[in-house]
């Protein structure tokens, strides 16, 4: 029974290492350097963003006619090649704030 338990623990640990190693973080700079964020690909359906102020969000993939599109309650991220646009949606005043010309760094 001890051997089975140890094998289960080792299996779980190796799965965590594999999952962590598949996450890729890239940096984007927008608005001529006025705004930046890190993009981490969690899996094929989710990404996480962290901006320069420390705001974080997890976005889910959504169908797009061209490029990639990820959406959360507060953000929409559109990527095509090395370029993108991140739009912040403020729920309090119902305004959108786009960060244009985001370039992969």
From TrEMBL:
Coiled coil: none annotated. It comes from the Bacteria. The keyword Lipoprotein applies. The keyword Repressor does not apply. Residues 1-19 form the signal peptide. Residues 28-93 form the C-type lysozyme inhibitor domain. This is MliC family protein. It comes from Limnobaculum xujianqingii.
């Amino acid at each position: 029974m001890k051997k089975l338990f140890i094998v289960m623990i080792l299996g779980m640990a190796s799965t965590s290492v594999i999952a962590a190693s598949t996450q890729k973080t890239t940096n984007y700079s927008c608005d001529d350097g006025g705004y930046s964020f890190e993009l981490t690909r969690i899996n094929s359906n989710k990404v996480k963003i962290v901006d320069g102020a420390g705001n974080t969000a997890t976005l889910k993939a959504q169908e797009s006619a061209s490029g990639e599109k990820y959406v959360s309650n507060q953000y929409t991220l559109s990527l095509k090649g090395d370029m993108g646009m991140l739009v912040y949606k403020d729920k309090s005043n119902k305004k959108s704030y786009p960060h244009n010309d985001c370039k992969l760094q």
